[in-house]
Amino acid sequence: MTCPFTARTRLLSEPDPALTGGPVVRTTLPGGTVVWVVTEEAPARRVLTDPRFAKDPALAPPGVTDLEPPAAERLSLTTADGPGHARLRRAHAPLLSARALAPYAGRVRSLAAALLDDLGPGEVDLTGDLTTRYPLAVVLEVVGAPPGLLDDAVAACRAMWSPDPAVAGAAFGRLQAIGTAAVTDGTGDGVAAGLRAALPDLTDAQVGYLVFGLVFAGQLTTDAALGYLVAHALDSGLAGRTADELDALVAEVLRVHPPAPFSLWRFARTAVDLGGEPLPAGAPVLVDIRGIDARPAVGHPLTFGHGPHFCAGAHLARLELRTVLEVLRDGFPDARLAGPVTGLVEVHPGGPVGARLAALRVRLRPAR
């Protein structure tokens, strides 16, 4: 099998290395920790819904790193389980529903149009600034962060990938502070204010960490998805595409290039048989979202997950992605890729973090 934790680079014209030997593949992390990767749909959906597979990093064995703090230390949607998670979910869901986000549609379009308008008339790299700044600009407005924090948030998101742990740690801390600022000094009419009202027993810092989770995840995933989406959209053409056709294109690109190729970690609470594979208590488990969704027989794609931990920001992500296509279709009819889509380079950093395009060079306007 191909180890999913190995950093790699490929052209989009080259086949994507696939995991083999399913439905549940036992492999090891670079440090030697044994983990299990689910590569078929039925056991994947079981892992994502069965309460015997928990999210709490407190259950992680040594060797599984780059995790959030345990839920007891930092309560979040991505680490809580059971009734605690259900309560958080009830607080988030109405604030991030399609209906709740509809009033933001015009503002999201204005942000996308302004950022594209600011790019030069020649050949530009959309992964240079747009894919980082646009999702942050949107999510900061939706959560109701105080004005003037976008540049700081962009710098923090870029610094989080620094090889220097001190720099990366400081960047995470700054983004968490932005989440807390949305609660304590925000506009009062966004998701942060809604969560503050729905969870009165939590401290401002605890609610701020929930907001940080939305900002961090919203930027990380949409940033990666934007490159692939724009590349495929400009390659196939946007002229005359209806809203339904744009939605279909977004869904298809997310299926083929999910921003998170693997689920977040699950840990077996007890010994359990999964797809014929005996797992010990404490077993770390990932779901191979990209591999499963690539199969034509798959049911509903797993791009945004499945079950109680289905992505809370799915509606916002779809809104952002579709809006960029609308702006390109309506405002930049001459936009073209600078080269063939098959020549684009995908960089995978290794581990469960998603791949992204190394660059996306585009001519937004005709040469003068």
Features:
single chain; 368 residues; alpha+beta; Cytochrome p450; five-stranded mixed beta sheet; three-stranded antiparallel beta sheet; 13 strands; Cyt_P450; Cyt_P450_B; Cyt_P450_CS; Cytochrome P450
Description:
Belongs to the cytochrome P450 family. This is Cytochrome P450. InterPro entries: Cyt_P450 (IPR001128), Cyt_P450_B (IPR002397), Cyt_P450_CS (IPR017972), Cyt_P450_sf (IPR036396). The chain is of the alpha+beta class and about 375 residues long. It has one domain (about 10-365): Cytochrome p450 (Orthogonal Bundle). The protein is built from twelve helices and 13 strands. It has helices at about 40-50, 80-90, 100, 105-115, 130-145, 150-160, 165-185, 190-200, 205-235, 245-255, 290-295, 315-330, and strands at about 10, 25-30, 35-40, 55, 125, 265-270, 270-275, 275-280, 285, 335, 345-350, 355, 360-365. The strands form four sheets. A five-stranded mixed β-sheet has the order 2-3-9-6-4, with helices on one face. A three-stranded antiparallel β-sheet has the order 1-11-12. Helix 6 runs antiparallel to helix 7, helix 7 crosses helix 9 (about 205-235) and helix 9 packs parallel to helix 12 (about 315-330). The longest helix has about 35 residues, at about 205-235. It is globular, with a radius of gyration of 20 Å. The chain starts with 7 loop residues before the first strand and ends in a 5-residue tail after the last strand.
